[in-house]
Amino acid sequence: MKIALASAPAVTGEVEHNIVSILRFLEHCSGKADLVVFGESFLQGFECLTWDYEADRVMAVSKEGAEIRRIREAAAKNRIAVSFGYIEKAADSLYSSQIVIDASGEIIHNFQRVSAGWKEFWHTDGRYREGRKFETFAFDGKKFAIGLCGDLWAEGRPEEMKALNVDIVLWPVWCDYKAADWNEKIRYEYAGQAAKCGNIVLYVNPFCADPGVADAASGGAAYFQNGQIIKDMPAGERGILIVEI
């Protein structure tokens, strides 16, 4: 199985731009990978929320909505599976979620982040919610699970993930470390943390393309195995890391 970790450009609040970015990467990876994985909140950008519920519910999208339907159609057209993060609207609740769509365009998993670090909880109410637990899903004969960004650092959660005994953990994030700090030191800390969560952990960070923003997600992707960095793409770059499992 080949998995493309897409450190793709995303612009905060520009859903159309980010959909087009996903579609371009799907077309580019067609025939080269079985699954393309984008980072946390990629569809809208991690800083898209204002914590004014009436504004945020407009920014959020349903997994059955037109925005995701376009990506499902593109997955089917290019015969490639895709996973990406988005701010999900489910009834009256909002979540930071990661969806998985197979190569026929069907939704096979929708994970809702279990840790509260995606929101300014001192400003939000009970309509900004988290999921309860990690869950597994099957793809191409392997058992997967997803942890979003701070999920795999939250107390007790690495042990919970490890207990699932999956083949592959997907770790989409939105991290704003300076590229040099990530490349020189922090990636090794993440490799160590990944070892607490599973044998194979695939990390991917978007490349924030907001104009004039200095402290933003700087890209990068990594294939961690048993605490080691098997293969990676440095932060500070946009592009694709293809790993074979």
Share of β-strand residues: 25-35%
Number of strands: 14
> Given the structure, what is the number of helices?
5
Radius of gyration: 16 Å
Shape: globular
The CATH superfamily name is: Carbon-nitrogen hydrolase
Say what oligomer this is.
Answer: single chain
Helical residues, percent: 10-25%
Number of domains: 1
Biggest β-sheet, characterized? 6 strands, mixed
CATH architecture: 4-Layer Sandwich
Widest β-sheet, arrangement of strands: 6-5-4-3-1-14
CATH topology: Nitrilase/N-carbamoyl-D-aminoacid amidohydrolase
Distance between the amino and carboxyl termini: 5 Å
Mean pLDDT: 96
Describe the protein's topology.
Elements lengths: L1 E6 L1 E2 L4 H15 L5 E3 L15 H7 L6 H13 L2 E10 L2 E9 L5 E6 L23 E4 L2 E5 L10 H7 L4 E5 L6 H17 L4 E5 L2 E2 L12 E5 L2 E6 L5 E6 L1
Helix pairs in contact: 1-3
Task: Describe the 3D structure.
- The chain has 245 residues and is α/β, with parallel strands linked by helices.
- The chain has one domain (2-244): 4-Layer Sandwich (Nitrilase/N-carbamoyl-D-aminoacid amidohydrolase).
- It has helices spanning 15-29, 53-59, 66-78, 157-163, 179-195; strands at residues 2-7, 9-10, 35-37, 81-90, 93-101, 107-112, 136-139, 142-146, 168-172, 200-204, 207-208, 221-225, 228-233, 239-244.
- It has a six-stranded mixed beta sheet. Strands 7-8-9-10-12-13 form a six-stranded mixed beta sheet. A two-stranded parallel ribbon has the order 2-11.
- Helix 1 packs parallel to helix 3.
- The longest helix has 17 residues, at 179-195.
- It is globular.
- Residues 1-245 form the CN hydrolase domain.
- InterPro entries: Aliph_Amidase/BUP, C-N_Hydrolase, C-N_Hydrolase_sf.
